[in-house]
Specification:
It contains 5 helices and 8 strands. By secondary structure, the chain is of the alpha+beta class. It has a single domain (5-176), classed as Alpha-D-Glucose-1,6-Bisphosphate, Chain A, domain 4 (2-Layer Sandwich), CATH 3.30.530. The chain has an 8-stranded antiparallel beta sheet with strand order 1-2-8-7-6-5-4-3.
């Protein structure tokens, strides 16, 4: 398992994942920034205006519920940073950092969010869920998404079931205790 790390410090929570991918940086860059490529591995095609201040629109709930975020930084093919569900989590940022390696590239994904935003989410969108449950769900979600990205490079499928999702969420919950 390519587990991520979850840290809480000074009112901020950071999810961090490192993946060593056997594809050149330019291929991975395209996979995370080109809407058609993202749609191939993420399950739905976003709208991406790839420039600082541009919109990053993802679709949820059978592809009909748009979430409009903003692109913060774009430094091809090294850094892509955007907000994440900014209407609920105004502090949340996601950064995709790519570094070339001899075998391909290293992808480091970080998702930073304030505890205050997590608290607000537990009272609105995720009403009834504790902050710990929201955090473990986010941790498992990013993990699974990166598994899908990695599998897309070699055409393999990623097994996924409610039991596997629960096991992964439980593994992230254990990191938080």
């Amino acid at each position: 398992m390519n587990e991520g790390v979850v840290e809480e410090r000074d009112g901020m929570v950071t999810f961090r994942y490192e993946r060593r991918l056997r594809k050149p940086t330019e291929v991975v860059w395209k996979a995370i920034t080109d809407p058609d490529e993202v749609g191939k591995w993420a399950g739905s095609r976003p709208d991406i205006d790839l420039r600082p201040g541009g919109e990053y629109v993802s679709y949820h709930g059978e592809g009909i519920d748009p979430v409009v975020d903003r692109i913060v930084r774009v430094e091809p093919p090294r850094l892509f940073e955007h907000t994440f569900w900014v209407h609920i989590n105004p502090s949340a940022l996601v950064a995709w950092e790519l570094t070339s390696t001899e075998a391909g590239c290293e992808l480091v994904l970080t998702h930073t969010i304030s505890v205050a935003d997590l608290r607000a989410a537990s009272e609105t969108l995720a009403a009834g869920d504790s902050i710990a449950v929201i955090m473990s769900r986010n941790g498992a979600g990013w993990h699974h998404l990166l598994d899908l990205l990695e599998a897309s490079f070699d055409g393999s499928a990623v097994a996924w079931s409610p039991e596997m999702r629960k096991d992964l969420q439980d593994a992230y919950a254990a990191m938080l205790s």
